[in-house]
Amino acid sequence: MRLVLVELDIAARRHRRIDIEPRLAGAAMRGAVVVFVVAHCAVTLSVMARLDRAMTIRAMVITRQSETKIRPMQTRPTVRILFFDAEDRLLLMRAHDPDVGDHEGRISDTSYWFTIGGGVEDGEDLPTAALREIGEETGHTKVRLGPPVWYRECVLTVKGEKRLFEETYFLARTEETALRSENWTELERAVIKDMKWWDMDELMASDEIFYPLCLKEHLPPLLKGDYPADTITIGL
């Protein structure tokens, strides 16, 4: 039986494989026992979800807290939209969902603001999904969709099950500000408390909770027209 040690560098989005038994370096990894050395279980789950798409493995995961055997989680490709009006105000939703917690299952006791968007449907490419989500959540169809600028991965606990959300953030603009909600789902009607066009000065000065947490850090370059040449990976 082959034993493989994998050291993970999540921040740099890479991993390094070290064979515990070099003589077996050429053997197939399928069926191997893989030992992951990581810092947090949530990160482990994220990596495991990726590996499961490439191979069938029996995994032994080592974390700082304990030695834990886990199974890959469900992944959800998602589009999110940085939706601006003609005055550079950003549209955000305020919500609170008692069925959604963080990667450790903790549920916020307060509402929070986040960008519009949602899951990518089967057969959709990302731009098509972004335009559909804009239409469903705002009623807007006359939209200028820009490039994808950010990418983020986060683990959330949905009804007790951990899920990996793979989020691609698009820029988009509109000349209209009226918002319509006739296409919202029952769930959206239940958890969304407000929608608001945020002025940048007001947003930057606010002490309310915004997701991603690094939103304020990464917005200013975009408003100056300084778009990244390639999609950049942002934090939580």
Distance, first to last CA: 38 Å
Query: Radius of gyration in whole Å, from Cα?
Result: 20 Å
Count of the domains: 2
Shape: globular
H and E order:
EEEHEEEEEEHEEHEHEHE
User: Care to count the β-strands?
Assistant: 14
CATH topology type of the largest domain: Nucleoside Triphosphate Pyrophosphohydrolase
CATH C-level name of the largest domain? Alpha Beta
Beta-strand percent range: 35-45%
Largest sheet: 9 strands, mixed
Number of helices: 5
Overall structural class, as computed from helix and strand content, comes to alpha/beta
CATH superfamily of the largest domain: Nucleoside Triphosphate Pyrophosphohydrolase
Mean pLDDT comes to: 79
Which residues sit in consecutive blocks of at least 5 with pLDDT less than 50?
Answer: 9-31, 38-49, 51-68
Portion in helices: 10-25%
Keywords: Hydrolase, Magnesium, Membrane, Transmembrane, Transmembrane helix
Transmembrane segments: 31-51
Cofactor: Mg(2+)
Pfam family, one: NUDIX
Summarize, please.
Helix content is 19%, strand content 39%. With 236 residues, it is an alpha/beta fold.
Comma- or semicolon-separated keywords:
2 domains; nine-stranded mixed β-sheet; hydrolase activity; alpha/beta; 236 residues; Nucleoside Triphosphate Pyrophosphohydrolase; five-stranded mixed β-sheet; globular
